[in-house]
Amino acid sequence: MQIALAEAREAAARGEVPVGAVVTDAQGMVLARAGNRVEELADPTAHAELLALREAAAKRGEPRLADCDLFVTLEPCAMCAAAIALFRIRRLVFGAYDPKGGGVEHGARIFSLPTTHHRPEIVGGVMEREAAALLRDFFAARR
Question: Catalytic residues, which ones?
Fold first, then answer.
């Protein structure tokens, strides 16, 4: 989660919402890491999770990451949660909860839907205070 937090800080420095993500393999080796790039790429789907998942899959040359874990600083939105299911991630670990835009424990609750074909192990609230502080400080500076 420390690497994901570093990616989130780098995203904030670029003017992006500070969210970072890391994909690790079964041995815990980092396959990919990313921060949000929505503004930079003018792409509303350029969330940290999607960027890291795409990079990890490309490195492996396969569309599924069934033995991989995803660490992200914020509860994934519904779009990212659906992508996590499609990539078949083994374990999702996230920091701050997102009551407004989350899609895992809040909102759409993608992994609770009967139509979801894959449900990763989910661990929320890891380094929650640090992740939430990054977001709170980022938005406070913009108001």
Answer: 49
